What we know:
Layout: E1 2-11, E2 14-20, E3 25-29, H1 36-48, E4 68-75, E5 80-88, E6 91-96, E7 99-100, H2 104-107, E8 113-116, H3 122-125, H4 128-142, H5 144-164, H6 171-210, E9 217-222, H7 232-253, E10 264-269, E11 272-273, H8 274-277, H9 280-302, E12 307-310, H10 319-330, E13 335-339, E14 354-357
Parallel strand pairs: 3-13, 3-14, 8-12, 12-13
Antiparallel strand pairs: 1-2, 1-4, 4-5, 5-6, 6-7, 9-10, 10-11
Bound molecules: adenosine-5'-triphosphate and magnesium ion (MG).
The site of adenosine-5'-triphosphate (ATP) has 15 residues, from helix 1.
Amino acid sequence: xxLTDISIxxxxxxxxxxxxxxxxxxxxxxxxxxxKTNLLESIYFLAxxxxxxxxxxxxxxxxxxxxxxxxxHITTSxxxxxxxxxxxxxxxxAKVNHLESSRLSQYIGHLNTVLFAPEDLNLVKxxxxxxxxxxxxECGQISKVYLSxxxxxxxxxxxxxxxxxxxxxxxxxxEVLNEQLSGYAAxxxxxxxGFIKTIGEFAAGIHSDISNDSEALKVEYAPNIKYxxxxxxxxxRELRILFAEYLPREIERMQTLIGPHRDDITFSINGFDVQxxxxxxxxxxxxxxxxxxxxxxxxxxxxxxxxxxxxxxxSELDENRQAHLLTSIRDRVQTFVTTTSISDINHAIMxxxxxxxxxxxx
Length: 362
Ligand code: ATP
Ligand code: MG
C-alpha cells in the first residue's frame, strides 16, 4: 500500500500544505519543534481517525482555528482511493472515495499504518503491563475469540478479587468463579503463545537483518502459569487444579495470585536478557524489530504491507543498523522517517528517496 500524496490544513502547526510522496522512502528533516512528528501524526490520523499521542482530538486543530482537514490518496495493488478526514467542534467526518462514512469503523482500515515512536522503547525497558497491553492490542486485532476471552477474564477476575477482599469470603462462590477463569485463561494463554511465536519469528528475522546477522533475537512468552498441555481441554483441567491449589493462599493474601494477568514476554540476544544486559542500541533495535514484525502480521491478514512511520529512530542506531533498516524495509514497505539532522542519514540510502525540510510548519 502506498500513500501517494497528502494535503493538510489547520492541522497542529500546519496552515496548509500539500506533499507528494516517494513510493519507498520519505524523510522529514528539521530542528526540534518544527512539525516533523505532526506530519507523521497527520498520516496516522488519516489512517486511524485518531492521534497516537493524544485522545483529545481538539488538540489537533491549529490554534485559533475551527476545523482541521487531512486528505490523501492511497494506492494498493488493485485500486486508488481518496481518503479524507476532518475534525471540528461537531466531531469527526471521514470520507472514502468522497462518500461520507456513517461510522468511523467503516472508514478505518483503508490505510493501514505501523508507527514506531520513541516511547515504544518501553516495550523492552518498561514494566510487564506495557508488554501485556501490546499483546492484548495485537492479539485482539487478529482474534475476536481472544478479545472476548480477555474481557470476560478481566470481569470475572475483578469479581473474584472483590470476594477475596471480604472478611469471610464465600469459598463456594470463588470456586465457581475459578471454574469460569480456567476456561477464559486457557484461551488467552494458548492464543498468546501462538501469537508470540509468530511475531517472535518475524522479529528475529528483522533483527538479524538490521544487525547484519550478528545478533540472534529470541522473543519468548513468559506465562505466569507454567503449563504442559497445548490443547484447550487439557489446559483447562490443569488450570482448575492449580487454581484450587492456590485458593487457601489467595484467601490469606486477599488477592488472585496466579493467572495470565501476570504474564510477560522476554527478549534475549545471543542468549542474554536484553532488558538487563542490552545496550541502548540493542534495546532500541529489539523494540523496533518487534514493532516491524507487525508489518508482516498485517500483510498476512490484509494481503498488503501497511505504510511505516518511524519517529526519531535514526539517532540511536549506528550507520550500519540505519542502512540495513532502511534498505531492507523500503523495498517492501513505504516508509516515513523523521530526523533532526541530515548527517543522521547514511549515504547508502540517499539515492532512492525523497527528503523534506520541515521549518515552522512549512
Ligand atoms: P522534535 O524534533 O522535538 O520531536 P518535531 O518537529 O517533531 O520536534 P512536532 O511535535 O511535530 O515537532 O511539532 C511541535 C510544534 O507544533 C510545537 O512548536 C507546538 O507548539 C506546535 N503545535 C502543537 N499543536 C499545535 C496546535 N494545535 N496548533 C499550533 N501549533 C501546534
Ligand atoms: Mg518529534
